Amino acid sequence: LSVSLDPYLLTIANNKKNCILSLCPGASSTGATPSEEMNGTGNLMDFLDEPFPDVGTYEDFHTIDWLREKSRDTDRHRKITTKSKESYWELIKSLLDAWSGWVVMLLIGMLTGTLAGVIDLAVDWMTDLKEGVCLSAFYYSHEQCCWTSNETTFDDRDKCPQWQKWAELMTGHSEGAGAYVLNYFLYVLWALLFSFLAVSLVRVFAPYACGSGIPEIKTILSGFIIRGYLGKWTLLIKTVTLVLAVSSGLSLGKEGPLVHVACCCGNLFCSLFSKYSKNEGKRREVLSAAAAAGVSVAFGAPIGGVLFSLEEVSYYFPLKTLWRSFFAALVAAFTLRAINPFGNSRLVLFYVEYHTPWYMAELVPFILLGVFGGLWGALFIRGNIAWCRRRKTTLLGKYPVLEVIVITGITAVLAFPNPYTRRSTSELISELFNDCGALESSQLCDYVNNPNMSRPVDDIPDRPAGPGVYSALWQLALALIFKIVITIFTFGMKIPSGLFIPSMAVGAIAGRIVGIAVEQMAYHHHDWIIFKNWCRPGADCVTPGLYAMVGAAACLGGVTRMTVSLVVIMFELTGGLEYIVPLMAAAVTSKWVADAFGKEGIYESHIQLNGYPYLDVRDEFTHRTLATDVMRPRRSEPPLAVLTQDSTTVEDVETLIKDTDYNGFPVVVSRESERLIGFVQRRELTVAIKTARQKQDGVVSSSVVYFTEDNPQVAEACDPQPLKLRRILNLSPFTVTDHTPMETVVDIFRKLGLRQCLVTRSGRLLGIITKKDVLRHMAQMMNQDPESIMFN
């Protein structure tokens, strides 16, 4: 029998009593006589009383052992608590250790908020740079340029002498076909330049800086190691290229990548504190809080950020992490508010003020928007995954720069003629959310006014739509089709790309169209039974902007399958606390409809596509299989690679390590009995033997390795020194019997974060089940390719 343990997924568990690696002493190293050492009366050498760099760490593309990390932190905390009673200095050190978590949260919040503010300011400027430049200060965006102008009027607040479009600056003419063509050409040229710089920087300096980052963050928080994904270069390049990618006008957002940026900040500050840098479990608590800070600054939604981390991203979220996530999100929001990138003295991105309440009859169109959001979510996930799979399996994947350039060119060429796709997506959503007041100059607010109307400015009755509204509806319909199609091909390219804002834009466009349709029906047919009870003639009944907000929530929910955090983010994003019920109805409906076509959201789908070893706690396993059906080795495979407790030589161990890629080995009494003793980790075994050869005299290839509790006896003086490795042996590996239902095994792997468990019968070792074996079996039971879970 043999067990195939993939190096990506298998390392071994370590009991808290066995975290320190010690080796059997050699005579010349301790000062004790050989007889004292062999009888256990001398001072035994401990080579690993001071931890070595390789002990307790994990290799790249491996899964951490949550139980082991928790045990190590408990030991560390107990040691600090004991020492704190010895002196005032140790007491101060214990207090500093206790406060280090809050210090890390403070630093994460400040840096994340600062980077988000800088990104917002840079995106505003570079987006406007595609259309023109400010003569008074080239680093001003269009809005900032006209703020500083003394010649700006309220009616023409978007026009000022200091801001000139490129055609006007170059030719002196702002109107005409020639000026339009020149502005068109330069718009496309700037977009191509920005996207080319973004994909080139990612490709050359930080390949991990591409994409949203949330699927990988979810996988890392579940315990997987991806070295460099949260590194300093990734942080720098992702920040710079995120500005370039969003400014290029592609159908993507910065909200998802900001979660990645925040987690990079968290990982950076973890390296300053040994409490987090040396414990992967504690590090992931910090990263969960950093994810909350990322959403907090992305949307100006601190509470929504905490709930997003809890509902969507985190795998292990203790109560302590909840408090610290709240604090990190709070600090990040304060920092962003101090920078004030939106210039409106508010933290929220799309602040709205509606003057009309919603009515029960409007739940029908709200639920229909939820159905649309669910259908859009299912369509987008299937289309995007099919395109990304094609990218992986064809020549398309070999030319990422060309793909980005082509998609950018198509996007820019099609977007410029339509004013609703030419502007930035955030500006588009903001306009769609807005209510039409008396001072609004938007084309969407071109209604036919009653000259005899004498009402307050903020209580305008429903009015018939003017030609501007009908023209805007056609442009919005074209923009909707364009956004639906182009977003499918944009998400997943080798540049930073978020999905929140494009999804919200699709929903907001659809919602605004539905809102205007309901508004006009209520105006022209107020005597219909559905309007009769709540909409009187001349009253302000329907708010189209509210429908846009509900549609945005529905589409975002359909794509990501968020519910609670989505609703909280939406009302924090807009300040529309009064409209929680419509948002909840749309979010729940979109999730139900989307789940009918597939349970996985876009992030889970990309995790499956990339083959990350992620056990989703929301998946149900209902098949009637047993541990013996899944364990390795199978009947046709070689025997299980094991070590014996007192008959294996150093040469045997080194040969086993060299010839296999397993990350751990069960230790048995003998090969005949196969009675399980414990489990030893490959990395710690390698380090122990290497250290023993360097520091312990008499250890040679023929030295016998002992895992027994008693000190080994040397029969003759000429015999080589034995090597005792009891302390690296995990004496309590997790075991199940061969008749344990796989439903229970899967639940154990999820809730305890196991990497493997051993299968026994009456104390006799039969085999092993790894996390990868569990994932393979689950894929097989769902009629999927079992090898699809290979990290790819």
Automatic annotation (TrEMBL):
Record's subcellular location: Endosome membrane; Membrane
Family under the similarity heading: Belongs to the chloride channel (TC 2.A.49) family.
One Pfam family per UniProt: CBS
InterPro entries assigned: CBS_dom, CBS_dom_sf, Cl-channel_core, Cl_channel-4, ClC
Gene designation: CLCN4
GO molecular function terms attached to this record: antiporter activity; ATP binding; voltage-gated chloride channel activity
Organism domain of life: Eukaryota
A cellular-component GO term for this protein: early endosome
Keywords assigned by UniProt, alphabetized: Antiport, ATP-binding, CBS domain, Chloride, Endosome, Ion transport, Membrane, Nucleotide-binding, Repeat, Transmembrane, Transmembrane helix, Transport
Organism of this sequence: Oncorhynchus mykiss
Any coiled-coil regions, as ranges: none
PROSITE patterns documented for this protein: CBS
TM region positions: 99-123, 184-206, 286-310, 322-339, 359-381, 401-420, 472-492, 499-518, 546-571
Primary site of residence: membrane
Membrane topology: Multi-pass membrane protein
CBS domain residues: 631-695, 729-787
Claim: Ion transport is one of the keywords in the record: yes
Protein name per Swiss-Prot or TrEMBL: Chloride channel protein
